[in-house]
Hints:
Chain A is of the alpha/beta class. Chain A contains 7 helices and 7 strands; from the N terminus they run E-H-E-H-E-H-E-H-E-H-E-H-H-E.
Amino acid sequence: MSKAIAIIAGVGPGTGAEIAKRFAASYPVVLLARNPSNFEPTAEEINKSGGRAIGISTDVSSQDSLKAAFSKIEQEFSGAPIAAAIFNASSRPMRKPILEFSVEDFETAHGVVAKGAFMFAQHVLPGLVLHASDSSAKYPPTLIFTGATASIKANAQMSVFASAKFAMRALSMSIAREYAPQGVHVAHSIVDGVIDIELTKEWTQGMAPEAKIAADDIAESYWYLHTQSKRCFTNEIDIRPMMEKW
Amino acid sequence: MSKAIAIIAGVGPGTGAEIAKRFAASYPVVLLARNPSNFEPTAEEINKSGGRAIGISTDVSSQDSLKAAFSKIEQEFSGAPIAAAIFNASSRPMRKPILEFSVEDFETAHGVVAKGAFMFAQHVLPGLVLHASDSSAKYPPTLIFTGATASIKANAQMSVFASAKFAMRALSMSIAREYAPQGVHVAHSIVDGVIDIELTKEWTQGMAPEAKIAADDIAESYWYLHTQSKRCFTNEIDIRPMMEKW
Amino acid sequence: MSKAIAIIAGVGPGTGAEIAKRFAASYPVVLLARNPSNFEPTAEEINKSGGRAIGISTDVSSQDSLKAAFSKIEQEFSGAPIAAAIFNASSRPMRKPILEFSVEDFETAHGVVAKGAFMFAQHVLPGLVLHASDSSAKYPPTLIFTGATASIKANAQMSVFASAKFAMRALSMSIAREYAPQGVHVAHSIVDGVIDIELTKEWTQGMAPEAKIAADDIAESYWYLHTQSKRCFTNEIDIRPMMEKW
Amino acid sequence: MSKAIAIIAGVGPGTGAEIAKRFAASYPVVLLARNPSNFEPTAEEINKSGGRAIGISTDVSSQDSLKAAFSKIEQEFSGAPIAAAIFNASSRPMRKPILEFSVEDFETAHGVVAKGAFMFAQHVLPGLVLHASDSSAKYPPTLIFTGATASIKANAQMSVFASAKFAMRALSMSIAREYAPQGVHVAHSIVDGVIDIELTKEWTQGMAPEAKIAADDIAESYWYLHTQSKRCFTNEIDIRPMMEKW
């Protein structure tokens, strides 16, 4: 059987990049992001340090774009089982009165977070099942979805983002139940707090480091989930920094 | 101020019809359903028995169709506040392996249950707020979404329906929080069980009546929610027949 | 069969009194509270206005006291089925660091809210089942537990109260599942907000009426739950005033 | 500062023993169980293989017994901070109709699972806080409670056990919120399934290994939780074997 790969959708500077690097220590990784500038530095870093990474410009909300990406993955890693697939893509958590959202806002957010997650899952599940059948595989194949506070609590003015994140959580739960008997480990993470990345630096000035989530620690938690045995699957974790109020 | 109306989306024989009749005892009602044969008998029954009902053929998943419906409502009931708006539309709870669902299946279900609910809410909220400002109104304006077991539990092979229903529940919660301070009562109902309607008759043969939910009792529960005061809003109820396992 | 009665545990000025009066419109009522001064005015009011009420000084956390109360109920209403039993007793929602709570604090709170609810349920269930078998009964027998925000969210410094309230919610859910097939309707209410009673008047000065829950509206919601048919049981409702943040 | 220790309450053959051995690889461990025969083999195994373990016969439901145990711990490890404290004690998950439970059954279960957890937390929190202040500590101090399916779902005939487990989960959540800002990591695990131990062997004959949870994998998950940084605390995980239906 071909060497198993890991696929990470939603690789920007921050969580996606850290996840990619963490999994690249064990698997060739495929990085999906719409904008190549988002995955290029990470792919380069991985390739330079002895790992193997390819980036594919992909719009996960587009059926055609996803299809093209997976064709390319098949070209590069023909017949490769998938050891891990991480759906880390997201829309922005826009906060505004429901009457100020356009239907396009709704479609954009749901296109990525709900429909995108659904289509991504459909693309990776066969490769994950294939990995489950590989008796030499070290860890069970793992599919992880990155959620947020809004995955379990729909605050005022968060109608669009929260409804999309709730939908993604349901997908994760349903697929977890459908595929666990086949040995595929599906998990959902509730990232509850601000992640400490370039993007959040400006508006978190003055915040203690312990008030923000470390992206590499999220990556470590995903790696831990991946290493769980078939006799101990965790299907949901929450993640928050020590200073978080919740 | 014009006399307040009630709008029910998703009126077929069964729950929608019972809700329409219940609210028609107090308000002129507007019945929305794609197929006129679904609302016609109910509208006729209401009009014959001294109430007032109009039906409008509407596809709640279509922005244009909804817009046209609300234009017609405005023509018929110009400037009327909305005392109650019930989103009872749904897709079928299809159960199949995720790999057998098409992207169209996903879009159809989410188009009605998630996006449809979102757009419906946008259309009715101004009229609900208007009713909240009417000091002579007997009850606070009420927006109710009909959920299902799948709104809180995503079983295997229910990925499409459950993700749409989770999304709708988030919408309900977020809007409830945003609009409660304006006096609009938003509630979500988790209908957990088989409703006793024509459609379910065949495949529930032999089931005791107490194993199925009575549609008119659902309507009564919605009416009760509508009558709650501003000092006692219930934002979520579950509903099941006594014989239900859950 | 004897005329059915209603039993309300935890009758002080406020919610308990309103519940008692609401149910007294249809049933003789038994009011339980530790301190007679808590139930006497309500019992008197009911008896004067044509209803029938007896109060029994009872410590619901004491096995002996509860036993004595139910002996007295049996004396007064021999063989009477129970149409409704409301467990509205509670400890104070003390807020302090866990290290400042004594084991006695824990035992006191749990003695009322958890063990008290358990023992109360054991005492009323046979009478509720009896009522379920009465084909002339207008409504299914109903057992309702009054919960709080702390029933579903355990905030910092609320360890004692929240753990007791979580326990009570579990009791309600388990009994609901066990007794629904016998026609007994069990429900839990999450009262999320400040109730507008004498006790809260001082520390809610300046708060709008719509920021507090009306006790008589809670009573009305309990009555509604009681009137639900066997084909439409609601097992959990939440209740909050329109101005509540949650 | 003295070398930090780990304390595990509820050490029988199975999960407790595996947790003890896992943490013994890094810390001297204290094993608490009522019956010395439960912790002796594990203590011996740890001591023989180069670790350090002491067992103390303790009834966690008894204030005096717990006090005595912690006095002994203080004697043995004077002033030692606590790196990890695991509350793994439990009552049996008895399943019977609520009317068949005695008040003693209720008190026994709640005495261990609810009150025991509360008192244990009070005893270990100062030592955990002490460890949080040790800048040379490798990992944040961790307090973990072992829950079960019944911690989040109260099935019929599970009134006693579920209410106790719900209470424990509330304790965990409340303490997590209170102590996170001090750097203490509190987590609750929902062990959802049959653990593969001697005790369950007989009644799980014929079950596939993948239908049972591996005790050492639970231990590994607890160790992982312990290693999480202050910038990535997980407060709840669920654990189930791949063949579990849920």
